[in-house]
Amino acid sequence: MTSLRADKAKVQPIFILSCERSGSTLLRLIVDTHSEIACPGQLYLGSMSNELYRTMNYSLGQTFDATKEIERKELVLQEVRGIIDGLMERYSAARNKSIWCEKTTLNTDYLKILSDLFPEARYICLYRNCMDVVHSCLKFNPLGFMPELVQFVQRYPENLVVAMAENWLAKNEKIFTFETTHPDQCFRVHYEHMVNDPLTVLPPLFEFLGVDWEECILQKVFSVQHDQGEGDLKVHFSRRISGDSIGKGKSIPLATIPGGLKERLDKVNDWLDYPSLESFYQDNCKDILSIESHSEKYSHAKQIEPDEFFKIKVREIIREKGGKVDMLRGMCRFVVDGKGGGSWVIDLSESVAEIREARDEDQADCTIAITYGAFLNLINDTASVEEVYERGEVTSFGSEPIALQFGKLLFG
């Protein structure tokens, strides 16, 4: 884990390795806030590199003058490296930065090709407590599982806790194995330490990455513009780095983990410096508060109803945010489901905003659908976007980037 101070003549890329729901989007935003590092949303460079190598090997690679297969392989790698590096260097330069970083979680399946292509790359190995990851996966996917998790759900449909735990095992065993075989290129980060004590964790991390620590990063991470892309959307609504989700895995009964799986999990827990499952459940220093139902939360608040919100409050928000609204162009349909709900349109396609009830013929760029209770939570400030999102009470269709911008406009 030695420092690899950046050589300006030849800057090596950075990869964030993690299991899903381990905080990689938060870490991506932190890294991207640095003045020298560009870290976009998930680009799937691992799978892209793998397919490019296959294509190159069986096309142009067959024409290379190589007496040995190992020579042909290196020539093919050079071609693929040139394509990937050229793309990412152009992107970094467009952002006035000199180093690029990639965070796709599925890159754990392509570590061999990535290390062959970039033998001197640096890797951030991000880990999070198993049961907290399981809890987050189950909360994040109430209406359907993200593609990365589907294979595990198919294998263990009778016990989704086991499915999510097996996913955690598979990903983190790969990352740990890579970390132990490439110790000088890897820097270990625990999610819990990162969110609870960022000033202790982050300066050494950036030193390892070869750049100076910038004091302003923690103040700017949620206010500077980051490029849109796949990842944890709710992070874009955060206002601070928080450890509030730590320990929530204790709400899952330990009895849902079979004995054999528990042993395998504890083996990896020990590798990663996490407590055993029994110790995790016995540690009551961070009690898990049950989440109030949305009806309990908004019943005590002075309520603003959806119709009043769209007819009056939205115009006030647009006036207050001025310049930020000028950069947003498009039409969004808001659908509030349930008694008291309805459908409204915010049209910012022209210079003058139009806010009205939706019509069947409206061609919106995106639709945001939310339950009546969750909507009251948000407009009455009795729940955060993160909470209603994890409860599965809000979803979107159409253009995800535009939906995200409208969501941040109203509730960010």
Automatic annotation (TrEMBL):
Domain SCP2: from-to ranges: 320-396
Coiled coil: none
Pfam families, A to Z: SCP2 (PF02036), Sulfotransfer_3 (PF13469)
Domain of life of the organism encoding this protein: Bacteria
Keyword ATP-binding: no
InterPro entries named in the record: P-loop_NTPase (IPR027417), SCP2_sterol-bd_dom (IPR003033), SCP2_sterol-bd_dom_sf (IPR036527), TPST-like (IPR026634)
GO terms of molecular function: protein-tyrosine sulfotransferase activity
Keywords assigned: Transferase
Transferase listed as a keyword: yes
Protein name, per record: SCP2 domain-containing protein
